[in-house]
Amino acid sequence: MVNYIEASSAPSKNTGAIRLYGSEAFEGMRKACRLTARCLDELAAVVKPGLPTDAIDRFVFEFGMDNGAIPATLNYRGYTKSTCTSINHVVCHGIPDAKPLREGDIVNIDVTYVVDGWHGDSSRMYPVGTIKRAAERLLEVTYESLLRGIAAVRPGARTGAIGEAIQMYAEAERCSVVRDFCGHGVGALFHDSPNILHYGRASEGPELREGMIFTIEPMINLGRPHVKVLADGWTAVTRDRSLSAQYEHTVGVTADGCEIFTLSPGGLDRPGLPPLNR
């Protein structure tokens, strides 16, 4: 049984009920998500061979502080960094460190800022210098998977429609969809209900209703979908060491579809790749 609750009367913890937000919350999310998108735009000029991922983490922290925002990951469940940097075969939750990026790497940078209590959550892939065609194709497939998932969002559909759209496309492109991690409700809480699976059937999952806010963040592998978490308790990698990629947007369900809160102000939603012909 799925329960829906008006967000204004919901407790400040994840109870399993799905929050339905109003216009004031949507405006708050626009502000938080716009700042996150601006940071990700700025990082396009920062990422380069030889740059330690610790420097990316400092940039994210300082950008947030300069703009009155707190990185949501900082001290979240013991995590000590302001961002996640996931390189090559790292699926998600890569921890920034002193190791420099290398020519040909691909790196996902995941940023969530808290602005006036609202969480703006997004991530993008960044090519490091010149990358191989297989890596570029993975980025293209992953971004298109995200777009197809977003296109499935509308009131009356089910969350499974998002997963089906992503899975059908990615697997047709001979890639695999990670099952171990998913999108999630977001807004007043960092992680909330419902879970947004990136695979499944259109007939499955909770019904989408106007006012819901959540992330869609498919993780797509060139090899098999299986992952493992390393001893640090955070870093998830592909078991076969194949390349993995992820793009993430925060969206809100509207009367006739959805609003993408984390769109790039500078048109850099897929930095380093050719513009889409749409």
User: How many domains?
Assistant: 1
CATH fold type: Creatine Amidinohydrolase
How many angstroms separate the termini?
39 Å
**Number of E-state strands:** 17
> Given this structure, which CATH class is correct?
Alpha Beta
Major β-sheet annotation: 4 strands, antiparallel
Q: Are there runs of 5+ residues with pLDDT below 50, and where?
A: none
Radius of gyration: 17 Å
Tally of individual helices: 4
Mean pLDDT: 97
Shape: globular
Helix content: 10-25%
According to CATH, the homologous superfamily is Creatinase/methionine aminopeptidase superfamily
Secondary-structure element order, N to C? EEHHEEEEEHHEEEEEEEEEE
Protein architecture, described:
The chain is globular, with a radius of gyration of 17 Å. Helix content is 24%, strand content 25%. The relative contact order is 0.19. The chain has helices at 23-43, 53-66, 133-151, 159-172; strands spanning 4-6, 18-20, 70-71, 84-87, 90-92, 106-115, 118-127, 176-177, 183-185, 192-196, 213-216, 219-221, 227-229, 236-238, 244-246, 249-253, 258-260. The strands form 6 sheets. Strands 3, 4, 6 and 7 form a 4-stranded antiparallel sheet that branches. The protein has a 3-stranded antiparallel sheet with strand order 5-14-13, with no helix packed on it. It has a 3-stranded antiparallel sheet with strand order 8-12-15, with helices on one face. It is of the alpha+beta class and 278 residues long. Helix 3 runs antiparallel to helix 4 (159-172). The N and C termini lie far apart (39 Å).
